[in-house]
Amino acid sequence: METPAEKSDAAGKPRKSRLPAISDAELVVMKVVWAHPPVTANQVVHALEKHADWKPKTIQTLLSRLVRKGALAFERRGREYLFRPLIAAEDFAHAASRSFLHQLFDGEIAPFLACFLEREKLSREEIAELRRILEEKQS
Length: 139
Known about the structure:
alpha+beta, 55% helix
């Protein structure tokens, strides 16, 4: 079954299309689903009861919106609904990062990093990790 995040090309291979727009509140719910798929609505409510001052109905509404947007799928098991993500957390993070870069830095990574690193204090471990990532990209 094709999801809204995937379409097939002429050869039948899945091809990524635009990921659905996800609000900040919906992202909080998605993080719970990404962490423990499949998850029931009650499990999401329980996971968020300390994080957000949301009523269970609010969380159910957010789950429904995410289903309509094609970010989640659900199946009914007895009296409960099990939710699972249709988009990977990594795909969403990449798309959100690219969007941010395009909006503020014309899609350029170097000016973003320069702006960010000029104002942030990094540990030796973080600097070493950045070096490792950049060296890996060069190979």
